[in-house]
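Lecture 7, part 2: worked example. A protein chain together with fe (ii) ion.
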Amino acid sequence: MDFPENCLDAVEQLIQQTHQDCAHLLELANKFSDIQEHLSNHVHGESLQTQYENLPPSLHGLVELNYDINNHSYCRLIEPLVYLRHYDETAQSMAISPLNSDGRPFTLSTPRIDEPEDNSHIHLRIPFRSHLWDGLFAMRTQAADMNVLGKDYGLNPETIRGLTQFLTNEPIPTPSDSVYLGQGVRVRYFGHACILLQTSACTVLIDPLISYDIQTDSRFSYTDLPDQIDLILVTHAHKDHILLETLIQLRHKTKKIIVPANNRSSPADPSLKLALNAIGFEQVEEATCLQRLPITEGEVLCLPFFGEHGDLDVDTKLSYRIRFGEINILFFADSRIIDDRVYSDLVPLIGDVEMMFIGLASQGAPMSWLYGPYLTQTINRNDDNNRSLSASDANHAIKCTSIFKPKQAHIYAMGREPWLQFIMAQNDQNQHQENIEVEKYLSWCRHQDIESKLLYMRQQWELIPK
Ligand SMILES: [Fe+2]
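Predicted complex, written out as structure tokens:
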């Protein structure tokens, strides 16, 4: 935890409070593990009907007992029913503070608490679905009266005063080129896996993770986005590809969000659509592999995404081909390109590829780093490391690039931008190994006359149709 010692009491209190407030959820999780263990140790082929009598009260009405086709019995959590019984938005809050540097505590281990004598942020216990947030974040680019907004949502005068300190009466200089009016496709790299595609008729944002503005370097930020985003595409449910901090700030200007559909039988694969709907995103649709989604003057084709999930049965992952006119762009995110046969089969569907983006974060964390809390049995250290959350290495990426033969193939999603430190745990040894893979891939691309870069901070291209 990234706290000074004088926060010890506050941390202890938070732990106690969490155990108290979430006792029913902790009970649900424990009983769910118990029933899984019971089924796998004691139930082998007989009817499951009598097993419902053994369910603890906390699971009654929330689960279905099933066999898979290998005759292994398991307990399936019916997620919408869990929301119906247990969803509690009083646990939601947002801390707002000015940021002048990228030094932020690591988010997986450091909760946001109100530190003693810390007046640097305002902590608002208001549900995420409240349109107050939309009004507030729209004020990044559209002037409004904080007093009126605050009163509309029942904020007290002190909170309104607190929020007003983050606002200005001066016009904010906004870039004149946030809207693209050219004849082709403008591609903007916002850092990590976040890429904005713009034509004069359509705007698509992939894996939104937008940095705040700071004056020390040049980076794309919220003011570089147009007033309307027609479509947000999410590749998978890892925190560096779907970040609530960014999404909630874009909700007021986003028409539609596409997320991959989940595997409803796997507790390790919760539904993004349900989660986003619950917190006030009404414009969410699910997509599955090879689904085609029309966009203005183009189409999104959903593609398979292999690996990077510790060999767990997770479906919430898609790569995308986005086509505008005759221009095709591929986004593979962290997909680990293991079996290249599938990509050969896709070539006729995809056509000539102008540009391709692929992640080479090949030194992923052990599987339990993200998925440990879902496991009902401990996994040994060796298996945990071998089932790491790794994207493609250079050889995987070379295989894929050889198949699609793009004119440009860029490496992205490497977690290196300074504003990612609060969610990424990079270390020098991993980065050293990844640099070797990056060099190998870039060198191969050079020999093939494929334009290729390791993307960092910001980048922009304009693709003009022939
Ligand atoms: Fe990932």
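The first strand starts at residue 63 and ends at 67. The radius of gyration is 24 Å. Keep this in mind for problem set question 3.
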